[in-house]
Amino acid sequence: MEQLQRNGKQIKQINVVNKPGMSATHYYIAVRQGEKLPKYIHPDLEPIVRVTHGVIGFQEQLMEILVKFAGYTLGEADQIRSAIAKKKKDVMLKAYDKVRLETQKNGWTLEQANELCDVLSAYSNYSFNKSHSASYAETGYITMFLKTHYSTEWWSAVLNNEKDEDNIRRFSSILRGILMPPTIKSIFTEFTPIKDKIYAPVWSIKGVGDNVAQALIDKGPYKNAAELAAMTAGTAFRVNSFVPMMNAGCFDSFLDPHKPYLESRKDIISSFARIRKSDAKGIQDPIFISPSPIQKFLLAKNAYTLFNTRVIEEPELAMIFEDNMLGDLTKTPSKMMPYYYQKTSNNTINIVAGLDELKSVPIVDKDPQLYGILCLFKGSEHRTGISKKSGRKWEHVKVSLDDGCSAFEVAWWDKKNALRYPIDSLILIIGRAKIDWRGTTTLDIHSVESIDV
Fold it and tell me: For 338-347, how does the pLDDT look when each residue is reduced to its tens digit (9 = 90+)?
């Protein structure tokens, strides 16, 4: 806060020159850092805009200019300010005519008068008064401080106050590794920070509402699945909540570390079914009881609405990937690019975690570097057509994929046949990063490798 008090005026000025409709940010910073001298349209303006290094940024500056150089009263200047903000062209043109006339009487050139009118026209886009800018600056500074020094608390507050589900999912992607799914030991009805993690509310599990959460909180804690089943009998916690919570990993603390995962998973399900006999019919699906690594991944993805794990980040799937690569696979400490894959002596493939990570790769035209993404195969389709631009025939195979967090499509140009892998099979797509016609980063497929599971 001391820093805010010392630099409050500077923060307010940066805020006002950086707002929509202004293009003075780089100029202002250059002057502040001594790289440029301040520029004034006319020396008469210096006393008014010296504080913002020659930039007319505040509404109060606009009004003072209109009063001092165009002969308006403060009341009239405020009406003109409002008219400029509302783009009332008749009022604006009349005011500009008077500005040109009065400033030229005081020795300004027509070019200087026109430049001043052009600057005033920028206010038709957006403008601040000093108090507005000060409040924004203070709020922005405090928010930045909290986000930097109290990150999990800040993000928890953001998530708890966000009502748009798409935004919540987008934030959950940003918080990969920090945002954790609910567990039976951490049942909350809102996003809750604990140390360096944030635990999602129980409603993020499909089929689990606040009434289930309250029942689990009221009856807990629980040492094992048998206690859970017995102590919550007769409450809102039933099989339709047990199944998605099991799939999302909420009961992983009940797993026996001395047994294989599937055996221990069966023990939890059996304990619940033995005590909740009336619910037992709802948990007989073989995939639910003994899922394969991919099935387990998909069960968790379908159960947890804020699922934010890449395919390659799932330990079992990463192990399968490592075991199936025929070339030289090197693990790295980077979360963005966890592997290098050298298939031939002169061809190193950078394996990125997912589509979002590929988007952060600098795109160089005709760059020979190959990138790979480990994905779940979702389907493909052979397409042909004629280019409207060149008139030439084209063909490609559209491949639908899912990296765990993002479903996306890529094209394999000049490929003659659609891919026939089983849906949800594990594949590594390899290609060159490029910007497509929509301006988004994509992968131009070079080859595809199937990963045996």
Answer: 999 987 767 7
How many other C-beta atoms lie within 10 A of the C-beta of residue 286? 8
pTM for the model stands at 0.73
Q: How confident is the model at residue 7 (pLDDT cuts 50, 70, 90)?
A: low
User: Are 28 and 55 a contacting pair, CB within 8 Å?
Assistant: yes
pLDDT reported for residue 17: 61
Q: Across the chain, how many H-helices and E-strands are there?
A: 18, 11
CATH topology for 318-451 is: OB fold (Dihydrolipoamide Acetyltransferase, E2P) (2.40.50)
**Burial of 323: CB neighbours in 10 Å, binned 0-12, 13-18, 19+:** exposed
Kindly give, in sequence order, each residue whose CB lies less than 8 Å from that of residue 427, ignoring residues fewer than 6 positions away: 374, 375, 376, 377, 401, 421, 448, 449, 450, 451
Residue 418: phi and psi, rounded to 5, are -65, 155
304: DSSP letter: B
Domain boundaries defined on the chain: 2-133, 150-303, 318-451
CB 100 within 8 A of CB 115: no
* CA dihedral of 182, 186, 190, 191, whole degrees rounded to 10: -70
The answer on pLDDT for 231 being more than 70 is: yes
DSSP-assigned letters across all residues of 129-170: -HHHHHHHHHHHHHHHHHHHHSHHHHHHHHHHH---HHHHHH
Dihedrals φ, ψ of 360, to 5°?
Answer: -90, 0
Decide if 250 contacts 304 (C-beta within 8 A): no
CB 208 within 8 A of CB 267: no
* Angle between helices 293-303 and 239-247 in degrees, nearest 10: 120
DSSP states of 44-98? GGHHHHGGGTT---BHHHHHHHHHHHH---HHHHHHHHHHHHTT-HHHHHHHHHH
Question: Using a CB cutoff of 8 Å and minimum separation of 24, what contacts does 275-282 make?
Answer: 275/226, 275/229, 275/230, 275/233, 276/229, 276/233, 276/238, 276/239, 279/238, 279/239, 279/242, 282/239, 282/240, 282/243
Q: What is the pLDDT of residues 332-373, one digit of tens each?
A: 999 899 999 987 767 789 999 998 888 888 877 777 889 999
- Residue 111 burial (C-beta neighbours within 10 Å; 0-12, 13-18, 19+): exposed
